[in-house]
Amino acid sequence: MYNVTELAYCRADKWHAAGYTGRGVKVAVHEVTASTCRNLARWGGRVIDPFGVKFTDKADSHAQNVIDTLLLTAPDVEVHLMGADWLANLRYCIANGIDVYNYSATGSYNTAEFNELERKALDAGVFFVCSAGNDGARADSLSGFSRKKTWLSVGSVRWGTYNGFTGPLSNGYSSWDVRGDDLDVCGFADGLQIPSELYADKLMGVSGTSFAAPWVAGLIAVWKQRFIAEFNRKPTFEETYKAVIANAQDIEAPGYDQRTGHGVFRLPEIIAAPTYDVITATVGSVIGAHNGERVSLAAAPQLIDGRVFVGLRDVAELFGASVAWDTAKKTVTIKRERR
């Protein structure tokens, strides 16, 4: 195992053990235009190249490392690779139910058409995450999208020891040192070990905000999986943003600072998944959840005279039973094998 300390600090290990791995969540990955990647077997078909511009035979590119970093914190998300056309990307996200948009580059785009599509994407449940930039010691040099209130700006930290303190550090490691009032949070990147096809040990190190952004995007995807399972809807941008800021851990002076923002984003404490089945249903909705997984119900629960009525077949079959209806006798038979 590798990156264990960083995953444990962000509580990703506990969330994964509880069944929250990003399953059912869609993440758009957009990085430097020229970077391509292989369609690797280890991705298990969860990485999609809808525009046909990213999959080549090139190994260990920027794009590949971004994807692998994302899959560290959200191993079961569905990844959609974006192309160079911003407008086409946003239209795709709106039409295909993308949940998180990760931009691991420092440019920006600002036209009336772009802003309108961005607003529609936000309304459709897309949460935008961007890298803060890697401009050395320059102050106020955050990436273009970092300055937009509709994007979460992510800086980079590493795990290490400094002056007797062991934990996440923001100083003296990589080229990242951008700072400014629009930096939101930090994520781990510097020193992460990523699978590689080029080296004998099959691992390589990465650093910089290009990889801190997908680290945080993956944590958000895991958080969104749980939110959707509990509330049967996608969270708004404001709900997601507030959750991220509320769970950011200060690592420098108390409170907000220009170097680390609100701190390192960590998932909140979570109790491991119960050993019993859990079904969640909402009155009037045919969308429910079974053990945190989104399911479609044959009939929506109804509230009649102060009582909630739930479809018998839906509940029985989700609990692993079979249901049979005898029209002549007008009887229902439910069968379930003893365990």
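the 2nd protein, sequnce then structure:
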Amino acid sequence: MTKVIYNNTPKRFSLRLINPYFIITDLFKYRELISSMTIRNFRSLYQASYLGVAWQVLLPLIMLSIFYFVFGVIMGGRFTNLGDESRLDFALALFVGLGIFNFVSINLGTAPSIIMSNQAYVKTLLFPLEVLSITNVLTTFLSLVINIILTLSVFFATKGMIHLSSIYVVFYLLCIFLISLGLSWWLSATAVFFRDIVAIVPPLTIILMFLCPIFYPASMVPQKIKWIVDGNPIAVIIENARGCMLYGTWPSLSSIVFLSIFSLSFAIMGYCFFMRSKDTFADFI
């Protein structure tokens, strides 16, 4: 078994902290630790249940069935003005939006307690604390990937084809992963110094949910306030991922450039803030 060497030596600000290449190489040293912790966390979600990891497929299927019945059959909701939109189409559109947002909201909710719930790593071990956020986000990311695969499978089973534009969902998954990772680094470090962040995050998450086109299409937003949705990277990801998977809509070059720059920059800034702060964690815990 390869021995993992932990290094928690203070890092002074340098270009190394904001250079994507050096960030990746620094984190790559802990790849075995990250993979083992992620697998352990993922398995522990349903470790005591009889069906185990199978719940990762059954639960989304149950939720999709509920969306179909409540929002499609009872409420008769629609995402487009196309006459051929079925109730299942609406349920899938809602399922995609909620799946992506739930991934973000779960990480928002758990991020403030990451360091506080692992105080032993801070005080007694030379442990790379930055990997805690990575393993936490990766664990929930696996569930999101399963949801996306399930959505495409149901779409293929009912339509007999998959839009070629669905290939872009890989890009949107990468972007939402980087944004969530940056948020996790930001919030986990901030919560050490500002404990009230734990109480602030839940209401902000609810506000963010209604600012994203989850229960409604972005086209319904009045033009005067449409900038709120257009400037919200999470909303852009939800709308574009839904479009490329379900409606065969190809993303615009401007949205690709915007999301690429924002998600990468946000993750780098979160990492830089965390690495600059972690040397003082022990003094506040």
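Residues 164 and 248 are 7 Å apart (CA to CA). Residues 21-284 form one domain.
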